[in-house]
Amino acid sequence: MHNWYACSHARPTFCNVCKDSLSGVTSHGLSCEVCKFKAHKRCAVRATNNCKWTTLASIGKDIIEDEDGIAMPHQWLEGNLPVSAKCAVCDKTCGSVLRLQDWRCLWCKAMVHTACMDLYPRKCPLGQCKVSIIPPTALNSIDSDGFWKATCPPSCASPLLVFVNSKSGDNQGVKFLRRFKQLLNPAQVFDLVNGGPHLGLRLFQKFDNFRILVCGGDGSVGWVLSEIDKLNLHKQCQLGVLPLGTGNDLARVLGWGPSCDDDTQLPQILEKLERASTKMLDRWSIMTYEIKIPPKHSCPTTPEGADNCQFHISAYEDSVATHLTKILDSEQHSVVISSAK
What we know:
Blueprint: E1 4-7, E2 29-32, E3 38-39, H1 56-59, E4 64-66, E5 69-71, E6 76-78, E7 103-105, E8 111-112, E9 139-142, E10 148-150, E11 160-164, H2 168-171, H3 173-183, E12 189-191, H4 198-203, E13 210-216, H5 218-231, E14 237-243, H6 249-253, H7 266-275, H8 303-329, H9 333-340
Parallel strand pairs: 11-12, 11-13, 13-14
Antiparallel strand pairs: 1-2, 2-3, 4-5, 6-7, 7-8, 9-10
Helix pairs in contact: 8-9
C-alpha cells in the first residue's frame, strides 16, 4: 500500500494513474512517501498497489530465477524523472516535462528510455547503498516467534537497521524517515514514536551480525541501547548515531557532529557509516540510596534536633560522593565494580 502525503511541485509533474498533469500553480497532489508515486486526490483510490517491495512475496511474478537461484529484478516507476536524467543504456537525455514517459528503478535509481528497457540487464544491483540494503529476496517471511526468516546474500553481510525519532528536531525526523525508506528496504526502517525499538530488534535478532543507526537525540540512543541490553544483542550489533535536534552530547563524543538537518546527504552518510570504525562504550546505572535513621535519632522540633538532622543529611551526601569518586577515579576494575554495587 502507498503511504500518501500532500505535497506541491516546483516543476511540471504528472499523475501516475491518469497520466494527466497535476494542475495548479504549484502542482498540488499526493505523493507516496516511499516510492514517490504521484496521483491526483481523486485518482489515489485507483492507484495500483505497486509500492516499493519489502519481502519476497511482494515481488510476485517479477522474480528472476536462474541457475544461481533467485535474483532481484528492477522495480520500475514511470515518468517524473529529474531534469538532468540520462538513459543508462544510450546515455541520452530521458524523461519529459511535457508528459509521463521513461522509467526509473526504485532500488538502483537507474533511468532508461522505454525503447531501451529491454537492452538493460534484468538483475538489479541495488545501487550505491547495496551494502546496507536487505533485498526483498532475502526476507522470506516472519516466523511464529516474530523473527525474519532471512537468508542474506554476500553483498549484505551486515544489514542496517534504522530507527528514526520522527518527533526529534521539531519534527524534522519525518523527512529523514521518508528518505531512508526511499534509499533502503522499508522493512528495515522504524519510527521510534510508533512502538519503540523492540519490534525492529526482534525482527533482526537472528542475524549473526547487523548494524544499527539511531536518528534522534541522546534519549533516543539510550532507549535503543537499553532495549539491546534486554535482548542481549550487544555481541552481534554495532550502533551509530545520526544527531537530530539539539543536545546530542553522545554524537559529538563519537565524532558524528552536533546535528544533521540535510536529508539530501543521507547517501553520503550511509557510505561513511559503512567505513566507520567501532569503539567500545561502557554504560553505567548509578543508584543512590537513603540511609535509614533509627527512631531514636528522629529529629525533634528543637535547635539541637535540627542540628542532628543536618548531620545525617551531610553523612548521606558524603556517602554518595565517596562512591561516585571511587567509580570515576579508580583504574582498577575490582574497585569500580565493588563501589557500584
